Amino acid sequence: MEKGNREGNLKSPVLKSKNRPATVSADLYTADSYQNWILSHSFEWCSIDQPSNDTIYFRSEFGDMEIRFYDENIVEISIFRKKDTQLRYYLHFELKKESHAKEMFNDMLEALYSLHQETTLHILLSCTSGATTSFLASKLNQLAKKNQLDWHFSAVPYLQLIESADQADLILIAPQIGYLKKKIECALPGKLVFQIPTPLFSGFDASGTIDYIRHLFEEEKKREKHLQHNLESPKEKESYIEFLGPALLISVILDSEQLNITLRYYENGKKVEEAKAVFAILKRKYLWQEISYMLRNGRKPEWIVLAIPGIVDDESLVTMKKMNMDHFNLAEEIERRYSARCLVVNNVNACALGCSHWQPDLKTMTLISFPYGCTGPGVGTVIDGKILSGRRGLAGECKFYMNRMQFSNSLDKLSRAEEGHYEMLIATILPLISFIDPDIIYMRTPLIQDMKELAARLTNYIAEEYIPKLVYLNNPLDEVFLGLGILISSRK
């Protein structure tokens, strides 16, 4: 779909507004003007509703878009997928320029329409062998068809659950493997995982299970709304860093479906505000928008520091195909736009530096990050308090040799299976021990959480005495920001 023009009527014949919105003066763009412009749209595929002065809804068969207006000209746009009520995309911005506000609306409108490809609700059931859940899945499919529900149920044995979960919107596990729920949730971040209540499962109660699923989605929508309006994270680990003056620290994380940005504004080394955003696609303008939002009310940081995926060399030249950057000087662009000193660092390296803060007595430490579905781990190493980035920022980019290794299956298949992760991690750890011999290795590996089992498998290739301490790292976001703070401190 093509992007909308400055008047906001999308060029796509599907999204084109029936009514051409009136233009508004760009000299002073107010919330009232923006609301009037939004309400002047009309589409065949969705309805538009304004239940209150500060809220507008776009409702369709496949998703809803909620636009809220707050004090200080803050606008918030959220998109919920209809089939499971999941919050798919979220952004907020300060209403300043007319063209920017309209562009954000058009982008989110396209994101809303893209959900028409995601109407079928895929629910994956699992038990020890898959036999019992297969029978229940068959009954559920019959009932869904009878009730004209666009729901599809399937079932797999537990050992095939991880590799089968890609398209699942909801995972329901049998009571007999309920003790594995937490492990599954950690292995599949972002997936909804619940245990089927024992009475429903034992009685093969398809009707009760359908009602239970509806209840789950209602509760999940309430939870998403609560998180959306309470963006402060739980009390993070102590991350006070003695950098001088105000600073904006940013973490950018990519996954297969969306872009997640977390921003924290610090004064005197302490966090004073945090904001998060979730986007459908990756565009640099979204980064500028979020930075501008955090710098509203005249904030003037001395530093803007980013942790970002991709290759980042010592001159902050970033290479990341998904963001259309090839040796792009991101730091220079940020300094030009915001008149602040800027540093850009690979996000795994930033996290490794943050982890090193907790072990100051160790000379060498390494972090391995291997999310579900990635075709190779990322590695960050810190030696004597310094990031080992290499001559051109390639240190730790395992993807350049992974596809030359002789594995038991394709990298894509291995990246979606627990045994595949063991295989690829061993192929990553052995060279690290041979060439760097770290004192400790932090493991950001959701599919592999049993460090004793990983160490035991390593002993098939190297003596136990040479295996460093392996520590599982659950949520590394605080370590990323801690690493960014350390980088600022080192520049003083």
TrEMBL record:
UniProt cross-references to InterPro entries, sorted A to Z: ATPase_NBD (IPR043129), PTS_EIIB-like_sf (IPR036095), PTS_EIIB_2/3 (IPR003501), PTS_EIIB_3 (IPR013012), PTS_sugar-specific_EIIB (IPR051819), ROK (IPR000600)
Keywords tagged on the record: Kinase, Phosphoprotein, Phosphotransferase system, Sugar transport, Transferase, Transport
GO biological process: phosphoenolpyruvate-dependent sugar phosphotransferase system
Superkingdom, taxonomy of origin: Bacteria
Stretches assigned to the PTS EIIB type-3 domain: 120-223
SUPFAM superfamilies linked: Actin-like ATPase domain (SSF53067), PTS system IIB component-like (SSF52794)
PROSITE patterns: PTS_EIIB_TYPE_3
GO molecular function, one term: protein-N(PI)-phosphohistidine-sugar phosphotransferase activity
Keyword Disulfide bond: no
Record PTM Phosphocysteine, positions in chain: 127
UniProt record similarity statement: Belongs to the ROK (NagC/XylR) family.
PANTHER family, per database record: PTS SYSTEM N,N'-DIACETYLCHITOBIOSE-SPECIFIC EIIB COMPONENT
Name of the protein in its database record: PTS EIIB type-3 domain-containing protein
Organism, scientific name: Ileibacterium valens
